[in-house]
Amino acid sequence: MAIRVLGIIVGLLFVALSPFMAYYGQETLTMCLSIFILGVLFLVYGVKGNQGLLKILPKNTNLKLW
Q1: Which of 5, 35, 3, 34 is nearest to 17 (CA)?
Q2: How crowded is residue 62: how many other Cβ atoms within 10 Å of its Cβ?
Q3: The pLDDT of residue 15
Q4: What is the DSSP string of 8-49?
Q5: pLDDT digit string (tens) for 8-24?
């Protein structure tokens, strides 16, 4: 449960800070977009767990999470 709470916190940080980094020019637009997508993945895992994350990932992935 603690790892999911950390996933929510990290996801919120990534999603919230990526537009600011793009606006101030600290990172390129593609880097900020990838940070945003990674933040969304962290948020989905934090909120819905493994089942929510596996709904987003492609069906042919062979992942065993926890």
Answers
A1: 35
A2: 4
A3: 94
A4: HHHHHHHHHHHHHHHHHTSS-HHHHHHHHHHHHHHHHHHHHH
A5: 999 999 999 999 888 88
Calculate Rg over the CA atoms of the chain.
13
Sign of the CA dihedral 45, 49, 52, 56? Answer: positive
Helix axes 29-56, 2-24, angle to 10 degrees: 150
pTM for the structure as a whole? 0.78
**CA–CA distances in Å: residue 44 to residues 7, 19, 25, 26, 28:** 8, 19, 27, 26, 25
